[in-house]
Each structure stands twice: as structure tokens, then as C-alpha cells.
Design a protein that fits this description.
This protein has 355 residues and is an alpha+beta fold. It is built from 8 helices and 13 strands. Strands 1, 2, 3, 4, 5 and 6 form a 6-stranded mixed β-sheet that branches. Strands 8-10-11-13-12 form a 5-stranded mixed β-sheet. It has a two-stranded antiparallel ribbon with strand order 7-9. A hairpin with a 5-residue loop joins strand 2 and strand 3. Helix 5 packs across helix 8.
Length: 355
């Protein structure tokens, strides 16, 4: 192909082309022409560029044969920064001399690679922030626990001292007020313990192994009967139910679920609590069910919210933290937890342990 400066389309095709281009002698490598786009890319003035040789631009290796050929190259700008490009060499005749018309196309890192690198950076940053937030929450929780327990003990202690030493002078109304203060401090202490359990459930190191859940459920049932021997509750605990789980957290999970079943069936004659497992599409689904008070499924999504209760405190005592702890334990084991219920006909809590 002949490329002559006298051609009418020369300026449009070469000088004003947005693609960076230059022309060099095919044998000597001397630069014969360069367009504005190339000057902007490399950062040189025209007279500076024309005085260069190919080696000054970096890795430049013209093809051995007279064919159009695209080759990757690492080039240098005038300020020394590196530039990854593809050089496409076209054999031409320029000013009656054998030459190469070279198209310079800058290579950008792939968008996919950029996205992955950015995603990894964001994930690492978020994990670091999450870890810092966990540490702050744990420190805050223990600090609150320590700072609140002392004044609570003082309030409770002085209230009981008033009852013991000045109870007759205060009268029945004053005694009732102080009794309520002691009850409130006891409730506050329970809430502090519950919050600390919630924090620990999310922070402790898991040690998964084969755990006999049936044995743990049986032990919990015996403990509940020992605490309230006057209650007649029938337990149906399936034998041989096991799971890969952290033993301590598995015990805590069953304590919460069986304890709730015990509590919410306390006003039901002929109370019955069941624990077992069933297969659903190849997945082991464990369950704890009772025939107690139950709840309205309209509010089921709030069950696992901290301090949210579906029953009044004067109906059933509790901190409102237990099910939030249960959900955290199950989630840490790679499982899920949900419930089904009908008011007045009991509730069933299902959970999986996929870890």
C-alpha cells in the first residue's frame, strides 16, 4: 500500500485519525511521521518524537514478514511510565521508501478482572469492619454488664435493707413498692445475662463433632421436671437423633427450644412436648413441638427479634432474647430455623444443622 503525503485524504486518514499512529522506515526504524493522537498518548512534542528511535519507546519488534501483524508491546511514555499496547504493523510505501504504518491501541485490564479485584477489596474491607464491630460490641456488652451489675446490686441490697429494718414503719404500700423494686432489679439482671449469652453465641469458637441430641433433650427434660416437680408433662423424645454440631451450642439450642415449650404449655392440661427429626428432600429437619399457648403466625417474622415478645410478660415470663440466641446458633452451623403455630394449639419449631 502506498501512503503519500500528497494524497487528498492523507490528513483525514492519518493526521486527524483518533487512533494513535506512526510511520517508521522498514529497514532503519527511523520515524517518518506521527499523528496527534500518538503524540498525546506518548506525551512527546512532534520534534521530540521524530528524533527518537524504536528502542526508546520500549519493546518494539517489527514482524519479520511483510504482512499485517498485531503484536503486544510494553511501551514507555515521555515521563517514564509504562504503557501496555498492541502494535498493528501494516507494510506501506511512504515517501517512496519501504515503511510500516503502525496502529497503537492501548490495552486496558479486563473489566471482569477489575470487577473481581474491586469485589475482593470490598469484601476484605467489609469483613474487617464487621470484625471490628464484633469486637466493639463484645467489649461494650461486657462493659455494660460490669457497670450495670454494681448499681443493680446496690439498689437491690438497700431495698431489701429497708424492707428488713423499716418495713413496719413503711406500711404495706411502702413494702409493696420496695418489693417491686427488687423484682425489677432481678429482671434487669436477667436481661443483662441474656444479652451476654447472645453475644457469646456469635463469638465463641465452634468445635463440631457428632452430638447425641436425644441424650441432651432427655437430660434437659429431667432438669425441668426436677425444677417444677408439681407439673405433669409428657415428653416424647425420639432416640438416636444425632447431628454434627458444637456440643455446647447444641445443648444451649435445645435448652431454649424445650424450655420455651415447657413454659408456654404451663397452662395447658395434659401438656406434651416432643423432640425428633424427619427427612425432607434428603435434608434432616429437627423439631421441638408442644400443645401449649401457640401464637398468631401473622407475627412469625418477629419471633427471632431481640426483646420482641408475642405474649404479655404477665402471662409468660422471659427476656425476649432466647429465640434470637437460637437463631444465631443455628445460623452459625449453616442451618435455618422457623416455626409453625396455631393460637391455643401449640407450636412447632423446626431447625437444620448443615455445617
Amino acid at each position: 500500500m502506498a501512503l503519500r503525503e500528497s494524497d487528498a485524504g492523507y490528513r483525514e486518514l492519518f493526521e486527524e485519525n483518533p487512533e494513535a499512529m506512526w510511520v517508521c522506515h522498514r529497514e532503519t526504524g527511523q520515524f517518518l511521521a506521527v499523528n496527534e493522537a500518538a503524540l498525546r498518548l506518548y506525551g512527546y512534542r512532534r520534534n521530540q518524537f521524530m528524533e527518537l528511535d524504536l528502542s526508546r519507546l520500549g519493546q518494539v519488534a517489527p514482524p519479520a514478514c511483510d504482512e499485517d501483524r498485531g503484536l503486544p508491546s510494553l511501551q514507555r511514555r515521555v515521563d517514564g511510565t509504562e504503557l501496555e499496547v498492541q502494535l498493528t504493523w501494516h507494510p506501506v510505501t511512504f515517501q517512496n521508501e519501504p515503511a510500516h504504518l503502525v496502529l497503537v491501541r492501548q490495552l486496558q485490564p479486563t473489566r471482569e478482572g477489575d470487577d473481581q479485584a474491586e469485589l475482593r477489596r470490598q469484601v476484605a474491607e467489609q469483613l474487617a469492619q464487621l470484625e471490628a464491630a464484633h469486637r466493639e460490641l463484645e467489649a461494650f456488652s461486657y462493659s455494660v454488664s460490669h457497670d450495670l451489675r454494681a448499681p443493680l446490686r446496690h439498689i437491690d441490697g438497700f431495698s431489701r435493707a429497708l424492707l428488713d429494718d423499716y418495713g413496719e414503719q413503711l406500711g404495706s404500700q411502702g413494702q409493696e413498692y420496695l418489693t417491686r423494686i427488687c423484682q425489677a432489679t432481678g429482671k434487669m439482671a436477667q436481661l443483662i445475662d441474656a444479652v451476654l449469652q447472645l453475644v457469646r453465641a456469635g463469638r465463641c469458637e465452634l468445635e463440631p463433632r457428632e452430638v447425641d441430641l436425644s441424650v441432651k433433650a432427655q437430660v434437659i427434660a429431667l432438669e425441668l421436671k426436677h425444677q417444677e416437680p408439681q407439673r405433669a408433662v409428657e415428653f416424647e423424645i425420639a432416640e438416636g437423633v444425632s447431628a454434627q454440631a458444637d456440643a455446647k451450642q447444641a445443648r444451649q439450642l435445645l435448652e431454649i427450644l424445650i424450655g420455651n415449650a415447657w413454659k408456654f404449655s404451663s397452662k395447658t392440661p395434659g401438656a406434651r412436648i416432643r423432640f425428633g427429626v424427619r427427612d425432607e428432600g434428603g435434608e434432616r429437619v429437627y423439631f421441638v413441638s408442644d400443645n401449649g399457648a401457640g401464637f398468631d403466625m401473622t407475627y412469625a417474622e418477629k419471633l427471632f427479634t431481640v426483646f420482641h415478645r408475642l405474649h404479655r410478660a404477665d402471662e409468660f415470663e422471659g427476656s425476649g432474647v432466647g429465640l434470637a440466641i437460637a437463631q444465631r446458633i443455628v445460623t452459625r452451623h449453616g442451618g435455618r430455623i422457623w416455626a409453625e403455630s396455631v393460637p391455643g394449639k401449640g407450636a412447632t419449631f423446626y431447625f437444620t444443622l448443615s455445617r
